[in-house]
Structures are given as C-alpha cells and as structure tokens.
Amino acid sequence: xxxxxxxxxxxxxxxxxxxxxxxxVSTVAFQYNPETLTxxxxxxxxxxxxxxxxxxxxxxxxxxETIKFDVELDATDxxxxxxxxxxxxxxxxxxxxxxxxxxxxxTQVISNMQQSKNGTTEMVPLEAPMTLLVxxxxxxxxxxxxxxxxxxxxxxxxxxxxxxxxxxxxxxxNYNDLPWGKPAAQLFLAHHKSKERMALLDFW
Length: 204
Prior knowledge:
There is one protein chain. Strand 6 (140-155) and strand 7 form a beta hairpin. This protein has one domain. The protein has 204 residues and is α+β, with helices and mostly antiparallel strands. It has a seven-stranded antiparallel sheet. The radius of gyration is 21 Å and the shape is globular. 24% of the residues lie in helices and 33% in strands.
C-alpha cells in the first residue's frame, strides 16, 4: 500500500502522513542507516476465563511490537562543502524535523488556547500526523514514537549542534490499534500477510 507523494527510499526513514488526506507531509530520511535495530514482540494471549486452560492457546491479536534504534547525525560533510544552512544552523534543521513529529501543530495550539481564553471548556484534541517507519520495501509500518532522546556530541563556534545521536523507541500500531477501514490498518495487515508468506519459504 502506498500514499500520495510517498518517496522510494534507499535509506531508512520516518514518514509523516496527514491523517485525513493520507498525503505525505514530511519525510525524514536517515543520514546513515542505523547499524542495529532492536525489536521486541509481546504476544497478546487471551485472558483466562473461569480457569479454562484452553484459553492459554488463544491469541487476541497481533503481538505488541516495539522497535528501538539510534540515528546518527553529522554535519562534517556539509560543512566541508560550505553548505549555507549547515554553516548557519548546524544540524538544528534535521533535529527539528525529527522532534516536530511529536509536537502538535502550532496552529492547533493557538486555536485551542484562543478557545480556552474565550471560555470554551471542551478543547479539540490535538491530532498528530500518522507516522510510518520505512525500513526497506518489506517493512513499512505505522508507528507511534514512545521515547525520544538526543545526545548532542559536538558544536560549532556558535554552539549549533553539528553531531548528535538520536535514540528512537517506536510502538508498532497494528489492526487492533487502528480503525479497520483506514489505510494504516490495511498497511499493517499487508505486513502480517508478508510475514506469513516468507515463513513458508525454505531456509537453511
């Protein structure tokens, strides 16, 4: 399944998709693909009812999967090429592109704050874009960023960061988390079916 404006990327990336139009609104391609990626899968077993042991063999749905990896950002090459934005800002733009994935839009904040000032008691929930992890053409997953840490490791003379490590923890959103008729749920289902097909291939 693809979305309008979806790029074909040789690198891993985080892609933000508008929740209403499903148009790609931003793509943060990794400068360097992470060397390692840690995945944890927690089975969703059915709760035991009245002590029925048969329930131990039942699954309520896809496992809860979490993914963790580090993204390296380094401005060295751009500085050597005298790239204007990098000289002025270092890697602030790249860091901001990642950070704003977990910020609501400022226009939404202003609207809610204005409504609050005007006495509106029920605020409109601030909706984030749908976030996708793109890791090759076999792994395109709807995700939620659950943890985000930045270690800035070097600065220029103006204290702009020029090298940093970003650690991202993601929770994969499956068809139990998403409205069934929406593209994100179908995207995960396609991922599920792909796993079943690959599991049938001969190996070793």
